[in-house]
Amino acid sequence: MDKKYPLEASLLSRSYPSKEKIIQLLETRYALNDNPTLSLKPIEIEEIENSNKSLLTNLREEKFKYKKELKKDESKSVFKKFIKNHQRLQKKLKLKIQHYKKSNNLSQVSETLFKEYKELLKFDDFLTMNKLWISYIKDLLCILNDGNLPNIQQCLIKLSSAEFNGCFLRVLKSKNKELIGKNGIVIYDSQKFFIIVEQTNKLKLIEKKGTYFTFVIPIYDYENENIDDNDNNYLEFNIIGSRFQYRSHDRSGKKFKSKSADDL
Asked: What InterPro entries would the database entry show (predicted)?
């Protein structure tokens, strides 16, 4: 029997070492006829939903369901509410300080006297975030702690799609003159704004359009106290805000062309 069906016998030999067992299995399988058979049990066939619908219709419905699920994600709306509430809190604290100064005839008043101050974001709380960003950007740009400069052209390409949450930014130029000189750690890089926390513990929304930013990256180990704090130990980059009016994940696939910035 095993000579008549050599392929089946060879396959069965991998599972059964006994030749007698293999012959028995082959005889059982081909007891009715010499053709290979496969026994199937009848099952209940469930009616397929939307069987009459076209494939295109089903795809459209799936796309609609996906968009509906995205709308359920309330993380963005929660963050927007947080920003608005924080701005109201800052304004309330400012008015309280002004009123306290006027009523007590004082020139200076500490913000820590008011309960609203405890609820404000603190610049020091984001220093760790800034250190993480420096480590991330140095790895991205292949900057080693040996003082050697990387390929600047390659750096510019990588920076165009980099993440700026945690970066310490400073405003160099802006159509809004009140923004010039403002600086702080970016806590959120949105499509149209850099949301930063200033060293004065103030939350600030800086519009990208019409604004020119600058930031520095240390080329030495910035935690080393023996390194002098001079310009030779840092790489300074300037970015045009209007070119960054995209989310970081959208910028990664966009090619920036060299052209004049008319909004500055």
From this structure: RNase_P/MRP_Rpp29-subunit (IPR016848), RNase_P/MRP_Rpp29_sf (IPR036980), Rof/RNase_P-like (IPR023534), Rpp29/RNP1 (IPR002730)
